Request: fold
Amino acid sequence: MAKYIVRSLLQIVPVLFIITMIVFILVHVTGDPVAMMLPDTATAEDRQVLRVALGLDQPLYVQYSIFVSNLLRGDFGDSFRYGQAALPIVMERLPASFELAAASMVVACCISIPLGIWSAVKRNSFMDLLISGISVLGKAMPNFWVGIMLILLISVKLEWTPVSGRGGFSHLILPALTLGTGIAAEMTRMIRSSFLEIIGQDYIRTARSKGLREMVVLGKHALRNALIPVVTISGLQLTNLVSGSLVTETVFSWPGMGLLIVQAINTHDMAIIQAAVFIIAFIVILINLLTDIVYKLLDPRIKYSS
Reply:
């Protein structure tokens, strides 16, 4: 296990190197950064001065070497919108994104685990069909629509929570529900399928034949093994929550990375986009590594080749 972790950490280096190439290419194929940064009234001389200042008059291989050397120092360039280095701006938004992601996963787990188990235990019953139908409906509903409906019902009509922004716990409820319910819909079906497979195994029948209570059989013997495939989808969903909750953060004006990226795209702030993409990629790599470690903790029988 230790060798696997060390090897995985070493593999991060070439992956990040490839990511730097992708980010560098994206910067150049999305258009001329000078044209994006200067107004239409700028003269050709103004454009040339800025091009030289940014090093864009150099050959591509020289620009890339400068780009990589700056990345090694944590320098992604300056945001022309904020007038300061891009990386600190992105790092300031990370806690808000992590807070929303963690709260959304808690909501998803609190909904999906009991419903998934209940649906599996009551297989082919009315409750099973109802839970499966709700899961399909929840997966089909887009996050922005769910968020708007929650705002209209809970914030505007009932006046229970704030409409938008980040502050106390009440500000977190609606965006966490919006993201969490969508994830719960998919996780519920995964847990149901996994649980159905597990409760049909011989060791579950053996545990029941020993006279163990059903709650002990399901909770101690079945649940742990049923959660192994769920860890995969949970890890993938967590990376999506941290990096991809663009619409939800925009709907609720949640000051996380999603809202920051949307604003950077609208203003063509390439320094912010570069820093955000790089940080998101690094987070995704780490979460995938942590997912593999959780596999091992849940099932010691899993072996990693060295």
